[in-house]
Every structure is written in C-alpha cells, then in structure tokens.
Amino acid sequence: MNAAALRDARIEPVGDRCLLIRLGEQAGVEISRAVHAVTALLIANRPPGVIDVVPAFTTVAVHFQPTAFPKGAGLPSAQLTRHLEALLARDLPALPTEGRAIEIPACYGGEFGPDLEDVARHCGLSVDETIALHSGAPLTLYAFFFSPGNPFAGPLDPRLQIGRRSSPRTRVEAGSVAIANGLSSIYQDASPGGWNVIARTPWN
Predict the structure, then answer these.
(1) Three-class secondary structure of residue 39 per DSSP
(2) Residue 182's CB: how many other CB atoms inside 10 A?
C-alpha cells in the first residue's frame, strides 16, 4: 500500500495525551487494511514518547506521554503530529491480504435469535433468505470493540441494512450474534445491548 492511499488521512488531537489518525468515515475492508498497515508502521517505527498504538474501525489512536517531548519546541501534540506526518509520507508495510477463515457455528432464530423475524421483515426478506445472506459469505474482522473480545466484522450484504434497535435490551446473552449498521458482532459476555440478535453461538 503506497502513501497515496493516505491522502485523506487526518490527525486530530484527543485531549492532551492522544492523537487520532482518521483514515476514513465508514468501516470497510480497504479502510481496515489501511488502519492495520498504519498500526504496523507505527509499531515498527515507534515515535518518541508514544506509549500505545490502538487500531479501530477507521482510526488509529496514538497515546503519548507529553513529558517525553522537549520544551520550547511547541506543544507535544504538535511535535508528534509533525513526526506522524513524516511517517505517513512513507509507503506502508505490506500486510497479508488473506487471513485465517474461521467457521463459527450458530443457531438462528427462536430463543437464540429473537430479532431474526423482525430483521427479515424490515429488509423485505424471508427468514431463510436472511440466514443465507448472513452466513453465506465470509466477513472481515475489523476490530474488537464495545467490551473485551467482542469482534466486529463486515461488510454485510447490503440487503441486510438495518440500524440498531429502537429500544436496547438490558441483557443480551453471551454468544449472541447480532447485526446493525452493516456490521456483525458476537457478544462475549451477557450485557446490555442495542443490536439486532439473530442467532447464538456456543463459542466464546
């Protein structure tokens, strides 16, 4: 991936100890690849003062220690921004384009997928079509988010476009497979949640 792929990248301060490299506005396979390539670049060429590099859906958070930067050379965030801009002008490291394929067993509908019929109705599909579209094509893992270990993957077939539930549940069971906003996730622990639960897996 060459540096031209980052022409729309923006570096934004988040408080006084973090900079956010924003690589896009919408989660997707290409943006995810850019996120992980930038993460690899920063880890391999860790700038001074940086204590953590955290990839997400469309951003890379760069956490830093302000006291590590020389006084009199401008704000630490400005100094680090210049350093990051120089790094991002380089070609990004080549990452594998193929990952491991993991098949996850799931039981759709009924008590395990209480929102399946509502999702099918909203999308103008039959229940069988909804299941086939969700399970029929591989998804790319974008990030772990929301709570420890929760995987978020996409893109879903555009025919499965649905937002979050209007009323979140106070408890979603561990292993619940849920969709919203073009993504699919698996709850790792029982917790409140507002996504549409269509299945459940025994895997954690």
Answers:
(1) helix
(2) 17
Q: Which amino acid is it at 77?
A: S
Query: For residue 181, is it left (φ>0), alpha (ψ between -120 and 50) or beta?
Result: left
The answer to whether the CB of 32 falls within 8 A of the CB of 142 is: yes
CA 186/CA 17 separation, integer angstroms: 31
**What b/e sequence results for 17-45 when a residue is b if at least 16 CB atoms lie within 10 Å of its CB, and e otherwise?**
ebbbbebbeebbeebbbbbbbbbbbbeee
Q: 72-105 pLDDT, tens per residue?
A: 889 999 999 999 999 998 877 777 767 789 999 9
In whole angstroms, give the CA distance from residue 114 to residue 100.
Answer: 30
CA-closest candidate to residue 185, choices 146, 158, 157, 159: 146
